Amino acid sequence: MILLQSHSRFLLQTLLNRVQNLEKSVELDYHWVEFDDVRYHVQVSMKNPHILLLSVSLPTPPLETVFLGGLPFGAIEAIKSAYGVIVQILDPPRDGFNLTLKLNLSKLPPDEEYRHALLVKVASVREVVLGAPLRVILKYLASRTIAPDIDRLVALVHRPNESFFLLPQQAEKVTVVFPMRFKDSIDTVLATSFLQEFVESRRTAGLNNAPPCLWSHSPPLELKGATDDALSANAGFVTFAIFPRHVEGKKLDRTVWNLSTFHAYVNYHVKCSEGFMHTRMRRRVESLIQALNRAKPDQEKTKKAAHTRSFKRLSLKESRTNSNS
């Protein structure tokens, strides 16, 4: 199984190129979209080549998801904690975006290794922003306490008009539920089969420490009280139980990212499976066509043999001899 990277590769490459050519007055204006409809916009003007503006547009939140000032709760604190003095949050953000960051590249640390790690963190702005509320709740779980002023059921956006749910009402466990929806009927069938195998693989000996995982076709009881739209899922519901051991130390960042992008992870492998089956079908058709071509008679050789036949002219004596015999 392939896990998605937490940083945007294109954004990281853009930042590295900009840092390496910081003395050159080059104007940049890049727009691009990544999975789950997260849009980026990078701008650098020739007047201020050391200032980079990074704008991010998040997926459209459904009604049950709460955004504060266009961002998930805890996002502002997470940005300040992750980036420090090199980043300034512009208020209001650029039109059409949820967040605009002003990066002062001249304030990057001189140490090359530390600078690269910081740029990777900037390129992981999606994880920092969308994973902020999940990180807040799981930090309380790591300390075996319950987050104060948190509802029984917390909805977090992860796709346009779609959310997954957390139940943080226990000090020893946080339950995470994903309604799995797919637009294409073939993707729905493949995803259902994939998720069933995904749950079964948890029982192998090497995955004893992984979070317990369940799949059900109907909504689990934990989603009681959610809206009807939230309970509609054509590929079923996946439930994870996260314990303190899964969020201790450096495990927290990995757990936050894997949960935030779980649907994209499933969708990626569904598309890979579909592409693999299409490739095998094309190869099978090609092999059958080759077998049919080998079974056809060689008409060119037959015609050539007919044209190359020769006849011997017999003399009158020879013809009489043949007729008498």
UniProtKB/TrEMBL annotation:
Molecular functions per Gene Ontology: actin binding
Choose any GO biological process term that the UniProt entry carries and state it: Arp2/3 complex-mediated actin nucleation
Q: Which parts of this chain are annotated as the region Disordered?
A: 296-325
Biased composition of type Basic residues is found at 304-314
Q: Show the InterPro entries listed in the entry.
A: ARPC2 (IPR007188), ARPC2/4 (IPR034666)
UniProt keywords (A-Z) are: Actin-binding, Cell projection, Cytoplasm, Cytoskeleton
Reading the lineage from the top rank, the first entry is: Eukaryota
Task: Give me the stretches of Basic and acidic residues compositional bias.
Answer: 315-325
Name a GO CC annotation attached to this entry.
Answer: Arp2/3 protein complex
Compartments, as annotated in UniProt? Cell projection; Cytoplasm, Cytoskeleton
Instruction: Describe the subunit structure.
Output: Component of the Arp2/3 complex.
What family does the Swiss-Prot or TrEMBL record give for this protein?
A: Belongs to the ARPC2 family.
Record function comment:
Functions as actin-binding component of the Arp2/3 complex which is involved in regulation of actin polymerization and together with an activating nucleation-promoting factor (NPF) mediates the formation of branched actin networks. Seems to contact the mother actin filament. Arp2/3 complex plays a critical role in the control of cell morphogenesis via the modulation of cell polarity development.
Protein name, UniProt field: Arp2/3 complex 34 kDa subunit
Its taxonomic placement starts with: Eukaryota, Viridiplantae, Streptophyta, Embryophyta, Tracheophyta
